[in-house]
Amino acid sequence: MVLPLPQRPQSGYRGRFAPSPSGLLHFGSLISALASYLHARSQQGKWLVRIEDIDPPREQAGASSAILKTLEAFGLHWDEEVLYQSRQTQVYLDVLAYLKEQNLSYFCQCTRAEIKAAGGIYPGICKAQDHPPQGSAIRLINSAGHYQYQDIFQGTISCDPALAREDFILLRKDGLFAYQLAVVVDDICQGISHVIRGCDLLDPTARQLSFYHILDRPSPQYGHVPLAVTNEGYKLSKQNKAPAIDNQRPQPALVAALTFLGQEPPSELLPTSVEEIISWATTHWNLDKVPRKQQIILPE
Ligand code: GLU
Question: Where does the record locate the signal sequence feature (predicted)?
């Protein structure tokens, strides 16, 4: 069996924004969307959108279309068709079948409590056992264990080697596909060359790099922009009910996001149109100005 995934196109920048529809876009998501858009457009690259709707219990009704409307209102127009992960089921199943056939994965029946008792990092208990698929999770045999990489904005990133070596989950016991499986498979399917996103995903990137290595496919380049956090140090997230950004007044949020990203937008930009702001930002995008910080506290 050969890996049922396409080869990456030989050349050309292909970036993407991949929101989960567990809520509406907030200021933190706007920063990631804008940074990935500007980095792509400033290099005449393509910018794609993927809706990461693989977790129906956490999905908010109507969020996918609301997110797309917000991106349009903010002048972030994408290329090609939006990819919905909920329509990728067969591709994920084919990749899982390939990994099993190649002895690159195993079924696991351990409970959370058992893993906690073993120290929190999965020690491979089920690897030597031949569990049936029913009621099992699927874990990748993580022979790569990448824990260091070069980040476009943050320089050298070093993650906890033990965590990076863990045989991580590809299919959950409840039958849902895991983020690590879907994100890597879809970045390969969409031919993504550059992944620009928030610093909350610094650690998962190490796992994703291991997965590319095991699949024998070139990985994209990764760049993580600082995370917007509240005064109390919480990241803005859909889970902690960060306020949604206002589609009716995109200009102030765009200018604030550019300021956050260190781009020093001139004050004359504020009263102009969304198109003018995006056009200024694309022309002036300077990655050296993005703060080399993993998080920044938002002013009250
Ligand atoms: N869907 C993830 C999120 O909304 C982002 C995934 C990614 O950029 O790789 O947090």
Answer: none
The angle subtended at Cα 73 by Cα 69 and Cα 76, nearest 5°, is 90
Q: Which residue has the tokens 């498979």?
A: 185
- Looking at the domain assignment, is residue 227 inside a domain? yes
Residue ranges making up the domain that contains 279: 14-297
Domain count within the chain: 1
CATH code, domain with 98: 3.40.50.620
Q: In percent, how much of the chain has pLDDT > 90?
A: 92
Report yes or no on 87 lying in a domain: yes
DSSP lists the bridge partners of residue 50 as 83
**Residue 275 among known ligand-binding residues:** no
> Ligand 1, atom 8: nearest CA belongs to which residue?
18
pTM more than 0.85 = yes
Domain membership flag for residue 9 = no
pLDDT digits (tens, 9 = 90+) for 57-98: 999 999 999 999 999 999 999 999 999 999 999 999 999 999
Closest alpha carbon to 96 in 172, 147, 164: 172
pLDDT at 291 over 70: yes
Least Cα distance to 151 among 192, 198, 185 occurs for 198
Report if residue 5 sits inside a domain: no
User: What distance in Å separates the CA atoms of residue 189 and residue 191, rounded to the nearest whole number?
Assistant: 6
- Residue 207 beta carbon below 6 angstroms from any ligand 1 atom: no
- Ligand 1 mean position to 183 CA, how many Å? 8
Instruction: Check whether 105 is labelled as a binding-site residue.
Output: no
Tens-digit pLDDT profile for residues 9-63: 778 999 999 999 999 999 999 999 999 999 999 999 999 999 999 999 999 999 9
Atom of ligand 1 nearest to the CA of 19: 4
Q: Shortest CA distance to 171 belongs to which of 99, 123, 117?
A: 99
Q: Verify whether ligand 1 is closer than 6 Å to residue 15 (CB atom).
A: no
Q: Calculate how far, in angstroms, residue 225's C-alpha sits from the geometric centre of ligand 1.
A: 13
